[in-house]
Design a protein that fits this description.
The complex is a heterodimer of chains A (about 130) and B (about 400). By secondary structure, chain A is of the alpha/beta class. Chain A has helices at about 1-25, 30-35, 45, 50-65, 75, 80-90, and strands at about 70, 95, 100-105, 110-115, 120-125. In chain A, strands 2-1-3-5-4 form a five-stranded mixed beta sheet. The termini of chain A are far apart. Chain B is mostly helical and about 400 residues long. Chain B is about 75% helix and about 0% strand. Chain B is built from 21 helices and no strands. Chain B has helices at about 5-20, 30-50, 55-70, 75-90, 95-100, 115-125, 140-155, 155-170, 180-200, 205-225, 225-245, 250-260, 265-275, 280-285, 290-295, 295-310, 310-325, 325-330, 340-370, 375-385, 385-400. The longest helix of chain B is centred in the last third of the chain and has 27 residues, at about 340-370. Chain B is globular, with a radius of gyration of 21 Å. Classes of the chains: A alpha/beta (about 130), B mainly alpha (about 400).
Chain lengths: ~130, ~400
């Protein structure tokens, strides 16, 4: 009986460790758990440090109430930027022929709408 | 048909009805009501299982729910395919959005069956805004029925412990991370046992039994593209067993019920084709490659290597061989083979044939796949594709632990 209990105890530990491992691999976070019902919860983990720019852009676009936007070539060619931006800012759509353009560089061919810390918003009439 | 199964039928019908609602312009109020009804039924099922003292299931669901609600969506497929589709449906409220947005978002595979995406989208309506955590809870709703059914078949403590180990070590996070591979594995095993249950209860005349079979067959095909080959491999296995075995598993009309269950996925494929997405299918598979690769021994060896030598398959196969060794050993000895339960022979035969056919279909998919190189395709997908086989073999092994393999 003692031997059986020892086995059960060992298996219990293994099961518990595996549950913790699954939680770790899924980036379980107690903060997420208590806030699972809040708007945009969990998006910051996806758009990690490298793409915090997308979150800034998203906030600006929501403030301005834009439905579509375009990005300059440099941003579009940044690895993984386009698809991450598409997924995060949706339902605001990325369209090549949109009047509004986000760029990290200075541009003379468009009218500057507003200058932000990490990017500029331009109006490029087509 | 038990009261619990009736509850599962209502719950799964609601999930399917919710899927259908996305093909029409459904008022917001109906969708929100549907979300509340689905959650209500889910809670009622939990309460019912509590009354039936199915604490093992409750432990599993609670653990899975806590992890799901406390983790963002990280994995590529979950994020960019299933949850992105759900996000599009959440804002548009209609399935057409998946086809309209396709050109801009080709990586999101909008042509994949969208049952789970519709469910995620609907339950997000409860919050009335989008976030990256709660929609993933649809995985918990989808695994509810198969888990209850599979938990109910096991009786003793050791079987429960090993089922828990199989779930945690074979399927790992794939049941709840927003991907469909783990859920498909549960449904593959579940449908095999539903068919068996359907046959041994021998009450083929009750409409509700036919409906139970049909609704689950529909759900497995609408989970992801591999659902259709999974169901077809089960049907083919039954057909072959019936052909070569003395007593038939099914009457002819059961094949008609199976045909009915294929209608939703065929309708989906037709819709995709109508929206010019056929190109996407052609890009993924090219059957002309089969001729070149089928005689290429190195390719076949590589496919078998990647499909069999991976963690999930090794655990599943080990559980199967370890626990069913008594059955295999005794059954080979003809003098005592009559000691074995006739039904057990059938379930062994059905499971092994289904898994073998599914394995062959998977091998064929890898041979015809045009996704970059075979090595990349296999390294990214083989360990996930094999999960239905690994889990089903593991489960059938677990069922034979000190059970009714031998007649008492």
């Amino acid at each position: 009986m003692m031997k059986l209990n020892r086995y059960l105890f060992l298996i219990g530990i293994i099961i518990l460790l595996q549950i913790f491992l699954i939680g770790h691999r899924m980036s379980f976070n107690f903060k997420n758990f208590i806030n699972f019902y809040k708007k945009n919860e969990g998006i910051y983990e996806f758009a990690n440090k490298d793409f915090s720019l997308i979150l800034e852009i998203q906030n600006v676009l929501i403030d301005k109430n834009y439905n579509e936007i375009s990005f300059d070539k440099e941003l579009i060619n940044t690895p993984n930027f386009y698809y991450k931006a598409f997924e995060i800012i949706y339902p605001i759509k990325i369209k090549v022929n949109s009047n509004f353009l986000i760029s990290t560089n200075e541009r003379n061919d468009c009218n500057l709408v507003e200058r932000y810390k990490n990017f500029n918003l331009y109006d490029c009439p087509k | 048909m038990t009261a619990q199964n009736k509850l599962l039928i209502i719950f799964q019908s609601l999930i399917f009805f919710n899927y259908l609602s996305y093909f029409y312009i459904t008022p917001e109020i109906i969708r929100i009501s549907l979300a509340y009804i689905i959650i209500f039924f889910f809670l009622y099922i939990l309460f019912d299982e509590y009354k039936n003292k199915n604490y093992f299931f409750l432990f599993l669901i609670t653990t899975y729910s806590i992890i799901t609600l406390g983790s963002p969506i990280i994995d590529w497929d979950a994020r960019s395919v299933w949850i992105m589709n759900a996000k599009q449906l959440f804002y548009a409220g209609n399935i057409n959005v998946l086809f309209e947005d396709y050109k801009n978002i080709h990586w999101s595979h909008n042509n994949y069956p969208s049952l789970s995406a519709t469910l995620s989208s609907t339950i997000a309506k409860i919050l009335n805004h989008w976030n990256e955590i709660f929609p993933k809870f649809s995985s918990i709703l989808l695994i509810c029925a198969p888990l209850i059914f599979l938990c109910r078949l096991i009786k003793n403590r050791w079987q429960k412990i090993f089922l828990l180990l199989a779930l945690l070590f074979i399927l790992e996070k794939r049941v709840i991370n927003g991907e469909m591979d783990g859920i498909l594995s549960l449904y593959f095993c579940y449908v095999i046992f539903i068919i068996f249950d359907y046959r041994i209860k021998n009450n083929l005349n009750k409409i509700i039994n036919h409906y139970f079979l049909i609704i689950n067959s529909i759900i497995i095909t609408l989970l992801k593209n591999e659902g259709l080959p999974a169901l077809l491999s089960i049907i083919l296995a039954i057909f072959l067993i019936d052909k070569f075995y003395k007593k038939k598993i099914f009457e002819l009309n059961t094949y008609i019920y199976f045909s009915i269950s294929l209608i939703p996925i065929l309708a989906w494929m037709y819709l995709v084709t109508q929206n010019n997405e056929l190109l996407a299918f052609q890009k993924v598979f090219d059957f002309s490659l089969l001729k070149e690769k089928i005689f290429n021994f190195a390719s076949i060896l590589l496919i078998f290597n990647k499909l069999i030598i991976n963690k999930g398959m090794i655990i599943g196969l080990s559980l199967f061989l370890f626990f069913s060794k008594d059955y295999i050993k005794f059954n080979n000895n003809l003098e005592i083979s009559h000691l074995f339960n006739y039904q057990t022979q059938k379930i062994f035969l059905l499971t092994l044939t289904s898994t073998l056919i599914y394995f062959l279909i998977l091998s064929l998919i890898f041979l015809c796949g045009t996704y970059e190189t075979l090595e990349i395709f296999l390294s990214q997908y083989a360990h996930r594709a094999i999960l239905p086989i690994a889990f089903t073999l593991g489960y059938i092994g677990i069922l034979t632990i000190k059970t009714n393999v031998r007649k008492k």
